[in-house]
């Protein structure tokens, strides 16, 4: 076992603290990665605070990992020492079910193995990227193209793929009107990606305080949902709405913004239910859907797309000692638009 420095939550209510965690020995198909940067996702906060169910502690979160391969197992063929690589929200799956075979490991019928807080194949609880090193089976490690710096690439392993996957699946592109609810860690990447795909992009935010940013990132329009005229003006406008907000909103009001056969796709994950009136769907043959991350193949596709189009996350790099402060700032929407931890400070 390899003992490495990390930051972990000791309980659902305690601040994250410096500690050490153990990584398994490198197996035949494993890759040892020296982590360079780890993004802070809103999901990290939900998970360590028990919003999505009880957890085992201590727990080191982090599933936006970018680093360098420092050791490989004897049977590894996909990566080599020195490669620039990333690890996202999952580190394993059954590999045998229909969804895994189809390259949709995120929807593994037996449940994929999350990067942290999940039962690993050796029976231990996985620990995430708030650490200096991680050991991952080669099939769940992706290549970070040379055109992407590691710090701006780290958030793409969650925020990037979480928005890229539904945009691709629901056909964002030229001639499509796409709305993005919320301009945060997920939302700012949704705007960048939808714009690069050729769609007409509108940001729907509570206020106009981030309007300048939204237009700079690629939005064609920016509307405040606190303005009572917004929902009347935009009724029936959008082919696709990506909801990135991890809080309760009036889904029925937003469904009225969809054109015929339009879809509202939730990628934000609030802990409370979101009530939907059936007539909000029936009226325009509308769909209300959800989407998780992408599979490994699609994650690599996303990284290559971002490198081709010069897309990276908008980040604020912090030392490990500021993680708890960063959590409070995320909850206060005081980050533009993703905190990234310098792993050298663990």
TrEMBL record:
The Enoyl reductase (ER) domain, residue ranges: 14-341
Reactions catalysed, as given in the entry: a primary alcohol + NADP(+) = an aldehyde + NADPH + H(+)
Enzyme Commission number(s): 1.1.1.2
Needed cofactors: Zn(2+)
Keyword Metal-binding listed: yes
SMART domains for the chain: PKS_ER
UniProt similarity note: Belongs to the zinc-containing alcohol dehydrogenase family.
Protein name: alcohol dehydrogenase (NADP(+))
């Amino acid at each position: 076992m390899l003992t490495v420095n990390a930051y972990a939550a000791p309980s659902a209510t305690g601040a994250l603290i410096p500690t050490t965690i153990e990584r398994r020995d490198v197996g035949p198909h494993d890759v040892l990665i020296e982590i360079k940067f780890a993004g802070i996702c809103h999901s990290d906060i939900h998970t360590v605070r028990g919003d999505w169910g009880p957890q085992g502690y201590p727990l080191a979160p982090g599933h936006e990992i970018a680093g360098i391969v420092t050791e490989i197992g004897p049977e590894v063929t996909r990566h080599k020492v020195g490669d620039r690589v990333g690890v996202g929200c999952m580190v394993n799956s059954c590999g045998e079910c229909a969804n895994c075979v189809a390259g949709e490991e995120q929807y593994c019928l037996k449940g994929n193995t999350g990067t942290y807080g999940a039962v690993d194949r050796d029976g231990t609880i996985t620990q995430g990227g708030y650490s200096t090193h991680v050991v991952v089976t080669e099939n769940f490690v992706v290549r970070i193209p040379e055109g992407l710096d590691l710090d701006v690439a780290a958030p793409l392993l969650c925020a990037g793929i979480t928005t890229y996957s539904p945009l691709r699946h629901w056909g964002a592109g030229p001639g499509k009107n796409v709305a993005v609810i919320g301009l945060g860690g997920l939302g700012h990447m949704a705007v960048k990606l939808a714009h690069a795909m050729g769609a007409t992009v509108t940001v729907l935010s509570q206020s106009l305080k981030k309007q300048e940013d939204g237009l700079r990132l690629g939005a064609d329009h920016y509307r405040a949902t606190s303005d009572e005229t917004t929902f009347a003006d935009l009724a029936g406008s959008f082919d696709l709405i990506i909801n990135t907000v991890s809080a309760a909103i009036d889904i029925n009001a937003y469904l009225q913004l969809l054109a015929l056969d339009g879809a509202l796709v939730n990628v934000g994950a609030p802990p409370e239910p979101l009530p939907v009136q059936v007539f909000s769907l029936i009226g325009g043959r509308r769909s209300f859907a959800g989407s998780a991350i992408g599979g490994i193949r699609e994650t690599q596709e996303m990284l290559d797309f971002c490198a081709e189009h010069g897309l990276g996350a908008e980040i604020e790099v912090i030392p490990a000692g500021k993680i708890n402060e960063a959590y409070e700032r995320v909850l206060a929407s005081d980050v533009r638009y993703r905190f990234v931890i310098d792993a050298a400070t663990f």
